[in-house]
Specification:
This protein is mainly alpha-helical and 338 residues long. It has ten helices and four strands, in the order E-H-E-H-E-E-H-H-H-H-H-H-H-H.
Length: 338
């Protein structure tokens, strides 16, 4: 690990979620010039990043592994962007690049913005197609349907779309972004405002989920994916590192059971790497954690405890079926699992 690892900017200025700069869409009708084609694109992610983890979960639930290949970046990001040091010779074996920024540069020279994941890269040209984290998973669910596996769930049912969008917007503002607003706050009032909004929304979500298994309807939807990726990181990093410590997730009976239910559902927990998550947050955000010490806890064994949420009914995959086993090359290492 070099002296350039980490990023000193994190934790030294207030959080503001940047809009995605590259918003081209990969669609069935190729309206933006990017047609859905099996094998043409590569999804670049970090297992540490909640936004990227949405795409990993969606890809697996929908059975797109053979159609859309996966590149996993090193969780220890540095000022030069996400890097492929987990791969032999430090290069992505498909794209042949050392840093994700190279695909950004191929798309737009001297691009002034940050290099973010998830990102989809066009393999033949090596150019970035999109880093629109909000749209990528929606398009995987609705535009890539011809390549979905048999039994793939409908993650965005048209009849529920308005309600899904409403719930996702509340979760995005107060929870997904809320933990970052609290963690990167540079003043007491800014921190307290973010923390108050976060826990008020968590309490409302807990009440909503008291007598229903999933956020919208009786099956897993995109809304559940987006809430899960924040909740699964809550006690491991947000509670301590981001000072979101009014209470732990394990102290809310409903939310703790809800997130365990999802974690134990194929396609969710089998994509989560707690080792990557903890090392990224505690070692990259050096403005918050200058010692870069990674805590030993929390105990992960509770993630496998019975949740009893099936007593509320619901059908995780609707009329579909669970995804099959994780492929050997994409299995989370033992260090990242309970």
């Amino acid at each position: 690990m070099s002296d350039t690892d980490g990023n000193t900017e994190y934790g030294r200025k207030s959080f503001k979620r940047s809009k995605s700069h590259f918003t081209d869409r990969i669609t069935a009708d190729a309206r933006d010039g990017w047609p859905v084609e099996p094998g043409r694109y590569r999804l670049v992610v970090s297992r540490a990043c909640p936004w990227a983890s949405r795409a990993v979960i969606s890809r697996r639930l929908l059975g797109l592994e053979d159609a859309l290949s996966l590149a996993i970046a090193d969780p220890i990001q540095d000022d030069r962007s996400w890097r492929f040091t987990l791969d032999p010779d430090g290069r992505d074996p498909v794209l042949g690049i050392r840093f994700l920024s190279e695909a950004y540069d191929a798309r737009e020279a001297d691009y002034p913005g940050g290099v973010s994941v998830p990102a989809i890269v066009d393999v033949p040209s090596g150019r970035l197609v999109t880093n629109d984290f909000q749209q990528i998973t929606l398009d995987l669910a609705t535009e890539w349907t011809a390549l979905h596996r048999d039994g793939a769930p409908d993650l965005c049912p048209a009849r529920l779309r308005d309600e899904i969008d409403e719930v996702m917007e509340e979760v995005y503002e107060d929870v997904n972004n809320g933990v970052y607003r609290a963690g990167f706050a540079t003043g007491q009032e800014e921190y307290e405002t973010a923390c108050d909004r976060l826990f008020r929304r968590l309490e409302l979500l807990s009440a909503r989920l008291t007598d229903r298994r999933y956020l919208v309807g009786d099956t897993i939807t995109e809304a559940d994916i987006r809430l899960f990726t924040t909740l699964v990181r809550f006690d491991a990093v947000y509670h301590g590192h981001f000072k979101c410590n009014r209470w732990k997730l394990t102290e809310d009976e409903v939310l703790w059971a809800y997130v365990r239910d999802l974690y134990q559902t194929p396609g969710f927990g089998d994509t989560v790497d707690f080792d990557h998550i903890k090392r990224h947050y505690y070692q990259v955000h050096t403005g918050i954690n200058p010692t870069r010490i990674v805590p030993l806890g929390p105990d992960l064994s509770g993630w496998l405890m019975p949740h009893r949420r099936e007593e509320l009914g619901g059908r995780p995959f609707g009329d579909g079926t669970p995804p099959g086993p994780v492929s050997e090359g994409e299995r989370v290492p033992a260090a990242g699992r309970p």
